[in-house]
C-alpha cells in the first residue's frame, strides 16, 4: 500500500489552479496517498492576507470538495500565534510515528527562500521536500552553501520518497502554471475575469463575499 503522505502549506489568498494542478500531476507521477492542504497563520510583521482565515479556509474547502486526493488541516489557522513550518512538521512527525513516509510540498520560488526559514535544516529531519515547477524561478540556489545543502539531499529517484521516512529533496517534473494569488487579486481589483485561474466554486464565493475588490 502506498504510504507517502504530503503536507502543502501556504497562504492560499486565494487558492488557485497553480496550487492544485501541479500537485495533482505530482500525485499521479510519484504516487501520493494524500495531500493535506494547510493554510497558515500569517505572522504580524508580514503583509496580512486580504481574506480572513475563515474565508481562506472556506475557499480551500470549496476547491477540494470534489477532489478526494486532498484534505484540509486547520491546525495553523486555529492557533492564535504564527507557527513555524519546522514546528508544525515536528508535531506531524510525532503524530505519525518515526517510520511513516512524510513529505512537504513547495513551489520552486519557495525552494529559493527555504534556507532562510526558521530551523530549515530540521524540516528535512521530519520529512522529504518535494518541489513543484513554477515559471520564472531558477532551480539553483544563489549562495554556494545553500546549493551544497540542496545537492547533499537531492534525489532523482522518487522511489526514495516511498522507502525512506524523510531527508530527501525531489525536484518534480510537474507542468508549469503561470498563476499566483497576487495576479488574481490584482486582476479582480481591476474588475478583470479570472475564470481560467481558479475553480468556479471559489470564484463564486469570492463574488458572494465581495473579496479582492
Ligand atoms: P502570493 O501571490 O499571494 O504570494 P502564491 O500564489 O505564491 O501567493 P502561496 O499560498 O503563497 O501562493 O503558495 C503556497 C505554495 O504554493 C508555495 O510553496 C508556492 O511556492 C506554491 N505555489 C503557488 N503558486 C504556484 C504555481 N503557480 N506553481 C507552482 N507552485 C506554486
Automatic annotation (TrEMBL):
InterPro entries referenced in this protein's UniProt entry, alphabetically: Cyt_trans-like (IPR004821), NadD/NMNAT (IPR005248), Rossmann-like_a/b/a_fold (IPR014729)
Gene3D superfamilies found in the cross-reference section: HUPs
Location of the Cytidyltransferase-like domain: 7-187
UniProt keyword Kinase present: no
The EC number(s) this enzyme carries: 2.7.7.18
Keyword NAD appears in the UniProt entry: yes
NCBIfam families: cyt_tran_rel, nicotinate (nicotinamide) nucleotide adenylyltransferase, PRK00071.1-1, PRK00071.1-3
Cited function: Catalyzes the reversible adenylation of nicotinate mononucleotide (NaMN) to nicotinic acid adenine dinucleotide (NaAD).
Protein name as catalogued: Probable nicotinate-nucleotide adenylyltransferase
Species classification: Bacteria, Pseudomonadati, Pseudomonadota, Gammaproteobacteria, Enterobacterales
Chain's gene name: nadD
Amino acid at each position: 500500500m502506498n504510504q507517502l503522505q504530503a503536507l502543502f502549506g501556504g497562504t492560499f489568498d486565494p487558492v488557485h489552479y497553480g496550487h492544485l494542478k501541479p500537485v495533482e500531476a505530482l500525485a499521479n507521477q510519484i504516487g501520493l496517498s494524500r495531500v493535506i492542504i494547510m493554510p497558515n497563520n500569517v505572522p504580524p510583521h508580514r503583509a496580512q492576507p486580504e481574506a480572513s482565515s475563515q474565508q481562506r479556509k472556506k475557499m480551500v474547502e470549496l476547491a477540494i470538495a470534489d477532489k478526494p486526493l486532498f484534505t484540509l488541516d486547520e491546525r495553523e489557522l486555529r492557533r492564535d500565534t504564527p507557527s513555524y513550518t519546522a514546528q508544525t512538521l515536528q508535531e506531524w512527525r510525532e503524530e505519525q510515528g518515526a517510520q511513516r513516509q512524510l513529505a512537504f510540498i513547495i513551489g520552486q520560488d519557495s525552494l529559493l527562500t527555504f534556507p532562510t526559514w526558521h530551523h530549515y535544516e530540521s524540516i528535512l529531519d521530519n520529512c522529504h521536500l518535494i518541489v513543484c515547477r513554477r515559471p520564472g524561478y531558477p532551480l539553483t540556489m544563489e549562495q554556494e552553501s545553500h546549493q551544497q545543502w540542496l545537492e547533499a539531499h537531492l534525489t532523482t529517484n522518487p522511489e526514495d520518497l516511498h522507502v525512506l521516512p524523510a531527508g530527501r529533496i525531489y525536484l518534480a517534473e510537474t507542468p508549469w502554471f503561470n498563476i499566483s494569488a497576487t495576479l488574481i487579486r490584482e486582476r479582480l481589483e481591476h474588475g478583470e475575469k479570472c475564470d481560467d485561474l481558479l475553480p468556479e466554486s471559489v470564484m463564486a464565493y469570492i463574488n458572494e463575499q465581495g473579496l479582492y475588490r
